Amino acid sequence: MPTSPPPSPNAASLTPRAAAGLLARCTSRAAAAALHARLLRCSRAFFRSPYLANCLGAAYSRLGAAPSAIALLRAVARPNVFTSNILLSGNLGSGLLEDARRLFDGMPQRDAVTYNAMLSGYVGAALPNEAFRLFCSMREHGVRPTGFTFSIVSSAVASAHHSQQLHAAAVRHGLAHLDAVVSNALIDMYRRIGLFQYAAHVFSCMEEPDVTSWNSVMSAYKDQALSGTVFDCFRSMRSKGFSVDGFSVSTVLSTCSDVKDFAKGDQMLALCVKMSFLTNSIVCSAVIDFLCLSERLSDAVQLFRGMPTWDSEPCNALISGYAKGGLMEEALSLFAASIRNGVVPTEFTFASVLGWSSCFGLMEQGTQIHCLVCKLGFQDDVIVSTALTDMYCKLGLTRHARKIFRAVVAKDLVLWNTMLLGLLQNGRGKEALGIFRRMLKCGIQPDRITLFGALSACSLEGLVAEALDILTLFKDTYRIMPSLEHYACVVDVLCRAGMLREAVNFVENKLLEFAAATFSNILEACIIQGNTGMAELVAEKMVMRKSRSSLPYIVLAHIYGARCKWEKMAGVWRSMENQRAKKAQSCSWLCIKNHIYVFKSEQILHHGKGATYEVLDLLFWDMMDQPKKSEGLDCLQLFPDYP
């Protein structure tokens, strides 16, 4: 980069116009400073009018020397609106938002450029409400908004009411359907806040949509899981002569991954190769994700290795692919290698690695990644904080999870739900209910996951009345209708409270269509509580409904056998065989250093061979030596084949 101004006329022919042209061509702060010094040496008369001072201040601001621009323009004898606008941009560029606002309030004249600069400052400082209030003030003072104004404000709008007000203003000023930039901003705004129908309406009213418009509306359809409409849009886009770009292809390819349409995904992959899109990091990451999902991990690795440079998006995709395939060691190795290659991790990188580390119980690696998060300054990011909270909850370290949760200032719904479910996983029902109540007090709109967490917390604590109250609250206040999983939680609440008859009546009255699935929970509760009479009743109901689970047949067979009802017992075994009922398979896993060992129930010997069972024998005999804490019915003796 040059360190001196470009060749210029001699001092005699150096006019303000020529000097302004030289300033516009300066590419470094040193060049602008050198030309500034030369102008001062030639004659201070150059700066009697604000024209050249404005040009010099604009050059300093453009080249990242905002303090120099501010010092220069504050000394201008007769400033005009251009001077104030450049000074305002300089203050905002230096992060002096309050100084900029004081300057803005003291300006005798304000134009659209003035308001746009101040709006950009508020949006950049994450103050959306201030930005919207300033936009309303701009219209009240009769300053006509530009297309850039609507683009700025739309990126800050976060409520349905404000979005509709902004859209109405754009229509009133004739920009909503004629200006493609404004229309695209409105589509993206509606997509971001979840008003999909409005986004589609804006697109349908556009007179001349461009590629960005098609991409925006396809993203909106994708967010609504309308995969067929995404494919239709892509075909219409190509048939109308629009040239698709990397964003278009990545959106469609991600949709193929979401719905596991591998045939269309292969077609998109061929199009990417044909149009040389694989050099685009966003497209490449979508392709890697698709290949991993379609169980072609080796092809994804080969594509990644063929990339000329590493980027964060493809690294994230392959790390996630490794982790989903159970190759956590490879995922962590790639994560470390990407950092060594100068790839700065993003919040999604950390979320992926932390999420899968917690699933495999890799506490040491997870805490090391937490240290890296703090070192790189990601601890305030809500996505990373959510991943850390989830990791520590899955590792049983709820104290660390609560500390991270409390440190987040702007908690979103996902973080609240993560903390709520994390406490439940660790058996802390009362704390989970406390989190639920705090969430509602903070004005967070709950969802179905929140309802599931709240009901599960009531189940842990045996709070029947409170569970029914929460169910009513969600239906009446938040208009969230419970689904099968929520009613199953209510059944579990009744069972834990010993209200087995009420649980059966609840299923027959509310969940008759899903009775088979929910009766299994009741039957397990009957076994645990030793209520053989109710266990027989529920098992008979399940056998009458031709259950495909082996549990009711095993329970009935042992009950009939204990009463010497051999014919009924044989009939149950024949019914089980005719229904081809299968015993549920389960497994346990154990992480030792860098290896994860999986133990299935039907395995006799596995890693460690007899040594594992020798340890289990020692534990068993140690348990047998302990005094019995209760004299209740031993359900394992009653049902020895219960899985």
UniProtKB/TrEMBL annotation:
GO terms for biological process: RNA modification. PPR repeats lie at residues 111-145, 210-244, 311-345, 412-446. Keywords: Repeat, Transit peptide. Signal peptide: none annotated. GO terms for molecular function: RNA binding. Pfam families: PPR (PF01535), PPR_2 (PF13041). NCBIfam families: PPR. This is Pentatricopeptide repeat-containing protein.
